[in-house]
Amino acid sequence: GGDRYAIGGGVVRLYDSSVIEDGAMLSQWWLQLQMSGDIQKMFPKRAQTLPQLFKMMDAPTQLIYEVNEQGVWFAAWLSPSLDAAFYGIWIAKRMRNTRDCVAATAQSYELAFARFPFIMSVTMQAPLLKQQQALGYTVLAELPESFDGQSAWLTMLKRDDFQRIGMPYIMDRMKKARVA
User: Could you read off the pLDDT of 16-60 as tens digits, one per residue?
Assistant: First the structure.
């Protein structure tokens, strides 16, 4: 699959749309998202088809991912906008709250902040706002009826806030995380 990409203390894979194995990985990930129901929480209906996922993850978006014997378990993407980027992340339920998950999440933020002074995120999952705030995000606005008729929230994380608030939070999570 994708080229291995070292950031921080670990290695993730970088999606390349010209690599056949990466196309297969993206198709498998889409199937996992469909079967788990996670796709409805992540993308509006018009963006839930396989062709739309390929389109969303193509350049200039940068997608990093990790796989194990059960398939894709981690994906994070950056979609540049102005001098920043929109950031998205997905972790397979089976890998949430594991050390590998915490490490991959930290690596994805390192990648983001190596390129951008701040990132933005949009979520329709209100319970995620508390977790984002623990990482140093600021909730900028509620966006009424913006996600298939439901509210969504626009959040922002500055590089300095991540270093000051997010990294200590991640280090604490690493101590408490289970081994996969």
Answer: 999 999 999 999 999 999 999 999 989 888 889 999 999 999 999
Rounded CA separation 10/176 (Å): 19
* Gap between the Cα atoms of 108 and 28, Å rounded: 21
SS3 13: strand
- CA distances to 14, 22, 109 from 62, rounded to whole Å, are 7, 13, 13
CB neighbours of residue 55 within 10 Å: 12
Peptide bond into 60 cis (omega under 30): yes
Model confidence pLDDT, tens digit, residues 130-144: 999 999 999 999 999
Amino acid at the residue 98: T
Q: Which two tokens stand for residue 9?
A: 């203390």
Q: Is 7 helix (H, G, I), strand (E, B) or coil?
A: strand
Contact yes or no for 114/163 (Cβ under 8 A): no
Is-contact 130 139, C-beta < 8 A?
Answer: no
Catalogue the E-assigned strands of 20-163: 62-68, 71-81, 84-91, 118-123, 138-147, 150-158
Are 108 and 76 within 8 A, CB to CB? Answer: yes
